[in-house]
């Protein structure tokens, strides 16, 4: 079974992320969500296992249907490929309303509400 892979920090998972993976799911493609194993800091307040668990809660039905898998991967510096690798590299440009969703703003709101330290 093949998957469309998405690599990110997902800090936190939000509607823009869902829009992104829906682009492939709506084309009847399966999705592999790779959570980068980054160190905790202001931009990454959640550890990778918590991020994975949060995404799995949000996408439980799709995971049960084997449409989505979520894994933690080592942090990466680049994505590289050679010629004739057998897969596509696809950019999904969101509509303005989705593109304006900011995980930074979401994290700030969580701090202000004292949900996130």
Quick rundown:
The protein is of the alpha/beta class and 117 residues long. 35% of the residues lie in helices and 16% in strands.
Describe, in plain words, how this protein is organized in 3D.
- This protein is α/β, with parallel strands linked by helices and 117 residues long.
- β1 (4-8), α1 and β2 (31-37) form a beta-alpha-beta unit.
- The protein contains 5 helices and 3 strands, in the order βαβααβαα.
- The longest helix is centred in the N-terminal third of the chain and has 11 residues, at 15-25.
The average pLDDT value, as a whole number, equals 91
Strand order of the largest sheet: 1-2-3
Structural class: alpha/beta
Strand content: 15-25%
> What is the tally of helical segments?
5
What radius of gyration results from the CA coordinates?
Answer: 15 Å
Question: Mind sketching the topology for me?
Answer:
Layout: E1 4-8, H1 15-25, E2 31-37, H2 48-58, H3 60-64, E3 68-74, H4 96-99, H5 103-112
Parallel strand pairs: 1-2, 2-3
Notable traits:
35% helix; alpha/beta; Rossmann fold; 3-stranded parallel β-sheet; 5 helices; 117 residues; single chain
């Amino acid at each position: 079974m093949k998957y469309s892979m998405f690599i990110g920090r997902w800090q936190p998972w939000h509607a823009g992320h869902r829009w992104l993976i829906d682009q492939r799911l709506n084309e009847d493609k399966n999705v592999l969500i790779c959570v980068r194993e980054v160190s905790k800091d202001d931009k990454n307040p959640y550890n990778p296992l918590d991020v994975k668990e949060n995404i799995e809660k949000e996408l439980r039905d799709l995971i049960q249907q084997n449409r989505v898998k979520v894994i933690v991967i080592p942090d990466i510096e680049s994505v590289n490929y050679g010629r004739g690798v057998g897969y596509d590299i696809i950019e999904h440009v969101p509509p303005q309303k989705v593109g304006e969703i900011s995980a930074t703003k979401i994290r700030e709101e969580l701090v202000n509400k004292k949900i996130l330290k």
